[in-house]
């Protein structure tokens, strides 16, 4: 799966970090780091995180505009 976080929108509420700590990480007060192509086993947590984000900054799958299907072997930078 693919995700994109609109960092201009993100306010650092860290809901996503609590729900999917392997995918989202907060550095300092407001710098959010995330895995753009999280493994399939994280999909449910990512969806919960996206739903919980107070400012809807997390876009998942097709919404992210770069759905690669299974995401297997996806490029994680
Ligand atoms: S839950 Fe939303 S606003 Fe909060 S850190 Fe995550 S992306 Fe940013």
UniProtKB/TrEMBL annotation:
Record has Lipoprotein as a keyword: no
PANTHER family referenced in this protein's UniProt entry, alphabetically: FERREDOXIN (PTHR36923:SF3)
Coiled-coil blocks: none
Keywords assigned by UniProt, alphabetized: 3Fe-4S, Electron transport, Iron, Iron-sulfur, Metal-binding, Transport
MF terms in GO: 3 iron, 4 sulfur cluster binding; electron transfer activity; iron ion binding
Function, as annotated: Ferredoxins are iron-sulfur proteins that transfer electrons in a wide variety of metabolic reactions.
Name of this chain's protein: Ferredoxin
Pfam families: Fer4_13 (PF13370)
Required co-factors: [3Fe-4S] cluster
């Amino acid at each position: 799966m693919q995700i994109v976080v609109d960092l201009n929108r993100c306010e650092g509420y860290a809901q996503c970090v609590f729900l999917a700590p392997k995918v989202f990480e907060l550095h300092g007060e407001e710098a959010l780091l995330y895995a753009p192509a999280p493994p399939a086993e994280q999909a449910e947590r990512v969806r919960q995180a996206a739903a919980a984000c107070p400012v809807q900054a997390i876009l998942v799958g097709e919404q992210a505009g770069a759905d690669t299907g299974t995401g297997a072997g996806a490029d994680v930078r």
